[in-house]
Amino acid sequence: MYKVYGTAKSRAFRVLWALEEMGLPYELIQANPRSPEVLEVNPEGKVPVLVDGDAVLSDSVAIISYLADKHGKLTFAAGTVDRARQDALIHLLNERLDAPLWLKARHGFILPEERRLAGVSQAVEADIQDALGVLGGLIKGPFLQGETMTVADILAVHCLNWAHGAKIAITDDAVKAYAKSLRSRDAFARAAAA
Question: Which of 59, 74, 89 corresponds to the end of one domain?
Fold first, then answer.
């Protein structure tokens, strides 16, 4: 059984959702970043952390990609064009949505006030809006790549939820419908209830 360290209100949600979509058993150890429980398994102190036997993995995207590859679910096969497109989507989402959302959060409330840079939150909001506009044109069906849900969809919807929570307007109807559809999945609800 997998062990997941983190909370559903962090990037650990991505891991929980992937595990739920795949129907895999796991134990959630509710732990915040830099807590003693997390530092015991991840000296960096970040969540999520996945423990698989003797292996300890960190970084939400690395973890969900590992699980998808290991179990052959939520992914296209390595060496295929579809997989290359999936990987490209993951990199795009990390660069264009996840990174600016994290920067906004850091300079909005995470860093001590004396380390926050004025104007960063507003500046990255424009970048996030640009990325949201691009995302709307990338949706090929019910999922980003058409009829097959992948880990890229988990990453995308988590970022969209994060943007919504950060009070960033999502105005593209295709993006809103896409996110709403994926949030209605049973596995999403189970992960959110964790």
Answer: 74
Q: Are 192 and 13 in contact (CB under 8 A)?
A: yes
Phi–psi pair at 71, nearest 5 degrees: -105, 0
Do residues 104 and 66 share a domain? no
pLDDT of residue 56: 98
Range of the structural domain that residue 53 is part of:
2-74
Look at residues 41, 74, 107 and tell me which one is the last residue of a structural domain: 74
Per the confidence metrics, is the pTM higher than 0.70? yes
Query: Nearest CA to 74 among 178, 153, 149?
Result: 149
- Tens digits of residue pLDDT in 23-32: 999 999 999 9
57: Cβ contacts below 8 Å, ≥ 6 apart: 49, 50, 51, 63, 66
In three state form, how does the secondary structure of 13-32 look?
HHHHHHHHHHCCCEEEEECC
Tokens 């999922």: give the residue: 143
Query: Tokens 């999520």 appear where?
Result: 48
Residues in the chain: 194
